[in-house]
């Protein structure tokens, strides 16, 4: 009695169909993945800025002195320095890295924020930062009120 074995494996046609389907799925998924990465970078950068501002306020209260937030370099995209004058000398309490390529942090209203020993802001008007991505579609506005509260809202970047 003869037993016929069925061939195992893929035919060339089946392999080409599979590769075509993978290419179609990749074409649809890659642009969405790029937007996801940009969105995560914006969220991370905004959270880092909010965290730095809240830390500056907490350190001002803890140390009983004025604590300021300044750009690390020419603008805030290079990072943030949290500084205080302790025993007559300016000390950097913390350095927060900048967001890197693809995200821009700009001070759009007010001056460099600072906080007094009671937690209130040292500036005379609200300070507003815009955190925007390369696409310029969506971003986050981080504001520091005169009462020292840090707030963030979603915006459409200019």
SSE map:
Elements: H1 12-63, E1 67-71, E2 79-86, E3 89-97, E4 103-109, E5 114-115, E6 127-133, E7 139-144, E8 150-155
Antiparallel strand pairs: 1-2, 1-5, 2-3, 4-6, 6-7, 7-8
Q: Which range does the strand content fall in?
A: 25-35%
- Helicity level, as a percent range? 25-40%
Tally of contiguous helical segments: 1
How many strand elements?
Answer: 8
User: Could you say what the CATH topology is called?
Assistant: minor pseudopilin epsh fold
Number of domains as seen in the coordinates: 1
Q: In what order do the strands lie side by side in the largest sheet? A: 3-2-1-5
The CATH superfamily is minor pseudopilin epsh domain
CATH top level assignment: Alpha Beta
Write the CATH architecture name. Answer: 3-Layer(bab) Sandwich
The class by helix and strand makeup works out as: alpha+beta
N-to-C order of helices and strands: HEEEEEEEE
Which geometry do the CA atoms define?
elongated
Tell me, rounded to a whole number, the average pLDDT: 86
| Gap between N and C termini | 80 Å
Radius of gyration: 26 Å
Largest sheet: 4 strands, antiparallel
Low-pLDDT regions = none
């Amino acid at each position: 009695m003869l037993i016929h074995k069925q061939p195992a494996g893929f035919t060339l046609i089946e392999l080409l169909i599979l590769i075509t389907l993978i290419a179609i799925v990749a074409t649809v998924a890659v642009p969405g993945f790029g937007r996801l990465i940009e969105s995560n970078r914006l969220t991370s950068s905004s959270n880092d800025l909010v965290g730095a501002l809240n830390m500056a306020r907490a350190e001002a209260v803890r140390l009983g002195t004025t604590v300021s937030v300044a750009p690390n370099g020419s603008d805030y995209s290079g990072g943030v320095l949290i500084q205080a004058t302790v025993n007559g000398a300016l000390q950097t309490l913390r350095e927060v890295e900048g967001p890197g390529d693809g995200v821009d942090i700009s001070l759009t209203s007010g001056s460099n924020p600072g906080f007094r020993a009671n937690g209130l802001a040292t500036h005379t008007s609200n300070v507003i930062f815009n955190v925007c991505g390369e696409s310029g579609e969506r971003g986050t506005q981080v504001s520091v009120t005169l009462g020292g509260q840090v707030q963030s809202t979603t915006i459409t970047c200019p």
